[in-house]
């Protein structure tokens, strides 16, 4: 028995084509008429991206193969033909993720409550004000002292039970130890996220639970709350769930199939996913001929520091740099990405050239910048389509052109 799930709840079901059409018609009608629609997501919304779930049985139809706990309980290795990403940071949000983004943009979807820690909901473009990540986010770490948050374009978790990442808070007055935000079994869920989830559960008239066994509490108490309030709970999952009997509608098929069918009935597009980056650049004239340069990443949707750069190649004309290198061309390899440069003539038009190198999870090309060395404050957004390999620079976060 895989972590409390019997064979009965590992068996997979598929609705017939006729059954599925009727159920999706009904789902679309309920959502169209809803006043407060929420979605609850589990690992099943990410399996199509190459991230395995936890509880799927040894004979699952999923291309990712059996769940992690199922393999452990059966002392088995993952099948060689399983399609699994070696790095979750490389996962491209699924049609389900992107459909939820569109529904949120349209004001139809009020909140996504998620058990997932893969970071895909944020990466997909979902606005964090309408997202409650109950089990944490692999790309988020939090200061243990002042609770400041930092997003990273890499996995912050290193498996320690004390969650310490080895990094410290950027705030000089704090310098607290940073911890990953992953919630291990037996640990308390973050109060702010849990409160947000239940606030929406108390308002919801329609709740769609996708890709979850609904077996882990207190997270599963969110959709249960909706059902207890006699509001509409709909469950989309290959297996029967712990709330099967409480649901008005149980849809047995892949979550992507459900969301693609739903969006078609709502006459709404599923947007193409692109990489979104926000960059803040600053040059300050500290003294007569001395300039302080700072380059940092920020989250596109909230004012949080975001570690986006693997390195930055710097080239400055005719300067004497206050750095370990003696020439005007050097590489910044760690945060903070900044340096001080002295110039001989304060009236000169010395130029600074930067080659920003990203972590390259999606084969992002380097991006080049050029500025005159003078007082500057600049902030802009970069959008990268992995399918075309092209960066687009924009001044607004919502100015997305594919």
Automatic annotation (TrEMBL):
<protein>
    <recommendedName>
        <fullName>Deacetylase sirtuin-type domain-containing protein</fullName>
    </recommendedName>
</protein>
<dbReference type="Pfam" id="PF02146">
    <property type="entry name" value="SIR2"/>
</dbReference>
<dbReference type="InterPro" id="IPR003000">
    <property type="entry name" value="Sirtuin"/>
</dbReference>
<keyword id="KW-0479">Metal-binding</keyword>
<dbReference type="InterPro" id="IPR050134">
    <property type="entry name" value="NAD-dep_sirtuin_deacylases"/>
</dbReference>
<keyword id="KW-0862">Zinc</keyword>
<keyword id="KW-0808">Transferase</keyword>
<dbReference type="GO" id="GO:0070403">
    <property type="term" value="F:NAD+ binding"/>
</dbReference>
<feature type="active site" description="Proton acceptor">
    <location>
        <position position="135"/>
    </location>
</feature>
<dbReference type="InterPro" id="IPR029035">
    <property type="entry name" value="DHS-like_NAD/FAD-binding_dom"/>
</dbReference>
<dbReference type="GO" id="GO:0017136">
    <property type="term" value="F:histone deacetylase activity, NAD-dependent"/>
</dbReference>
<feature type="binding site">
    <location>
        <position position="169"/>
    </location>
    <ligand>
        <name>Zn(2+)</name>
    </ligand>
</feature>
<dbReference type="GO" id="GO:0005634">
    <property type="term" value="C:nucleus"/>
</dbReference>
<dbReference type="InterPro" id="IPR026590">
    <property type="entry name" value="Ssirtuin_cat_dom"/>
</dbReference>
<feature type="binding site">
    <location>
        <position position="143"/>
    </location>
    <ligand>
        <name>Zn(2+)</name>
    </ligand>
</feature>
<keyword id="KW-0520">NAD</keyword>
<feature type="binding site">
    <location>
        <position position="174"/>
    </location>
    <ligand>
        <name>Zn(2+)</name>
    </ligand>
</feature>
<feature type="binding site">
    <location>
        <position position="146"/>
    </location>
    <ligand>
        <name>Zn(2+)</name>
    </ligand>
</feature>
<dbReference type="GO" id="GO:0046872">
    <property type="term" value="F:metal ion binding"/>
</dbReference>
<feature type="domain" description="Deacetylase sirtuin-type">
    <location>
        <begin position="17"/>
        <end position="269"/>
    </location>
</feature>
């Amino acid at each position: 028995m895989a972590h409390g799930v019997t064979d009965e709840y590992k068996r997979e079901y598929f609705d017939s084509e006729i059954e599925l059409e009727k159920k999706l018609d009904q789902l679309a009608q309920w959502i169209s008429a809803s006043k407060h629609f929420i979605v609850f997501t589990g690992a099943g919304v990410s399996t199509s991206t190459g991230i395995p779930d936890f509880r799927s049985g040894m004979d699952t139809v999923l291309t990712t193969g059996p769940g992690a706990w199922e393999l452990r309980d059966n002392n088995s290795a993952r099948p060689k033909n399983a399609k699994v990403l070696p790095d979750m940071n490389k996962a491209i949000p699924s049609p389900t993720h992107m459909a939820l983004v569109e529904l949120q943009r349209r004001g139809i979807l009020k909140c996504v409550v998620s058990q997932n820690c893969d970071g895909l909901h944020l990466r997909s473009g979902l606005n964090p004000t309408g997202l409650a990540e109950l089990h944490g986010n692999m790309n988020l770490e939090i200061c243990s002292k002042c609770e400041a948050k930092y997003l990273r374009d890499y996995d912050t978790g290193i498996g320690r039970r004390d969650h310490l990442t080895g990094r410290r808070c950027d705030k000089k007055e704090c310098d607290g130890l940073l911890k990953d935000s992953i919630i291990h079994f037996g640990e308390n869920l973050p109060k702010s996220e849990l409160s947000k989830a239940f606030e929406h559960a108390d308002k919801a008239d329609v709740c769609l639970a996708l890709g979850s066994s609904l077996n882990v509490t207190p997270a599963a108490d969110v959709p249960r709350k909706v059902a207890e309030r006699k509001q509409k709970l709909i469950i989309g999952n290959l297996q029967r769930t712990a709330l099967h009997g409480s649901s008005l509608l149980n849809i047995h098929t892949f979550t992507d199939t459900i969301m693609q069918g739903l969006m078609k009935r709502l006459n709404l597009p599923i947007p193409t996913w692109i990489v979104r980056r926000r960059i803040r650049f600053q040059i300050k004239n500290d003294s007569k001929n001395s300039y302080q340069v700072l380059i940092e990443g920020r989250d596109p949707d909230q004012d949080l520091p975001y570690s986006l750069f693997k390195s930055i190649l710097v080239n400055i004309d005719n300067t004497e740099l206050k750095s370990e290198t003696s020439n005007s061309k050097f590489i910044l390899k760690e945060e903070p990405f900044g340096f001080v440069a002295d110039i001989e003539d304060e009236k000169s038009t010395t130029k600074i050239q930067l080659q920003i190198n990203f972590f390259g999870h999606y084969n992002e090309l380097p991006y080049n910048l050029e500025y005159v060395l003078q007082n500057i404050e600049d902030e802009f957004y970069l959008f990268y389509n992995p399918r075309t390999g092209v960066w687009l620079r924009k001044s607004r976060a919502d100015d997305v052109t594919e």
